[in-house]
Amino acid sequence: MLAQVTGIGAQYIDDTYPDMLGFFSDDPKVSRPDGTLTAGNSRAVSQSDTFGNTAFQYGSRGLHGCTMVAVISNRGVWMAQFWESYSNSDGEGANHDTVDQVLRQRVLMAIQGQTVTNPINPSTDPRNQYITPEGPALDPSLFNREDDNTNIYFMTPLDGSVTTANKKPPKPPSGPAMYPNKMRAIADTINELIGGVLEDVVQYNYWRLNYANSADEALIDTTERGLCMFQYDPNAFGSGKKGWRLFYEDRHYVSNEGDVV
Fold this sequence. Notes:
With about 260 residues, the chain is α/β, with parallel strands linked by helices. The chain has one domain (about 10-255). It has four helices and eleven strands. The strands form two sheets. Strands 2-1-4-9-10-11 form a six-stranded mixed sheet, with no helix packed on it. A hairpin with a 2-residue loop joins strand 10 and strand 11 (about 250-255). Helix 2 packs parallel to helix 3 (about 180-195). About 40% of the residues are buried. Residues about 1-10, about 25-40 and about 160-165 have low confidence and may be disordered.
């Protein structure tokens, strides 16, 4: 059964689950033993599972510009992390909200499982070169029934939400998203892929952590800031009664009893 979750930071991680399946870090020097961040690079990464007889959890920590996408139906989940500079950069250090070939190749084609044969690299910076995605594409068969109750849950940064010592934007959900056009493009791509049966899009615009600010850096793993977590349990509502819950920082989304089949 899903344990009661209270408190902050690492207390969201339920040790009664199997090992945490974490996403990757774009800093090769970052590695955590619990697996929530693994040394790696900026490629798109994803996980997916059906709602069967085994409990599992996915998540990431310390988000400071990345976008998380969770597609959840009554039968399964697909979740991905898209790095900000890798997915949105013009190659000159600026991020933008244009639906361009970089987004199509590094995000939209990754969602669809399409092979990129002629990658667009916006600069010669090795950190900005195309890298094949890690993890499965979205499987439409898990989300394409009329009665699947398929929803998309975004966690994406607020516009202008780089925290500095003298600049702090309104705490979410106030304020617009930084990449509204790109979020619409992602949602439209997913909805087309699953045959137009998408029920709703839920978007949480978060106040990003600023790693150049020591006060912000101290919040990583000690508060809910920058935390994303999905948990599934086949006995969430009692023996044989399946359920899931999703945390985007202090936001909590949960299935209803009887929803998960």
